[in-house]
Predict the structure.
Amino acid sequence: MHAYPFSDKVVVVTGASRGIGEAFARELVSRGARLVLVARSEPGLRRLADELAHAPGAKHAAEIVAADLSAPGAAAKLAATLRERGLSVDVLVNNAGFGTFGRFGDLPLQEQSNEIDLNVRALVELTHVLLPQIEKNRGGIIQVASTAAFQPLPYMAVYAATKAFVLSFSEALWAEYRPRGVRVLALCPGATDTPFFERSGDEAAVGVKASPAEVVRVGLAAFDRNRSHVIQGAKNYLTAQISRLVPRQTTLRITTGILEPRARGLESKSGGAAARMR
């Protein structure tokens, strides 16, 4: 499989204003892509678009769309906006998402429902509405999952479950659409140095944090090879494989032993409030 030619291709990046999404934008503009940056923060998007206009390799001004993708109907509205601007999508980078950390019963239900809406429902809807264009253009989709997809995580129960969905969903689409010329990749980073951990500190981070640029480099290399999924980092890869080999209850005892003290520390610092991480 040849490397994907991003030059002049329309690439939609969600969650683009910070973190891994921003790193995708910076790398793809250097490859000559025509970017559509999507996030809730319009000022953040404008700042990034202005910077990218002067980046080495930039061939096109980045388009911006300020939108909360967790809102009902947001995916359809985004697709309509793209049609109005005359844009036919070649590649979708589904990066928008957030996580919550704390005891399940202590976390607000609405917050966890929003987590499911953004991490799962919005990702599925956006994939569905843009896939006909992507297939016509023989492009692809990069879904940002997580190493959390490979095992249940106490104190991050909903987050890990949503990422397990993303991994399973993406691999199934890879099998369905590979014969039709569409690449689908689930990118599974571990702890990454992004604003995801801003509100919780490091309680939910396990292992050394990778740079967003390194995560993107690994993801795009796997996309070039038409991989169904890729795990960033050798230690993350080994951890994911071990969790598949040992009994699930053993895995749960290990992850509980790692995360429970951190959750208790968070409660003592915040008076019992759980943390939201983007």
Observations:
- The chain has a mean pLDDT of 90.
- The longest helix spans residues 109-136.
- The first strand starts at residue 10 and ends at 14.
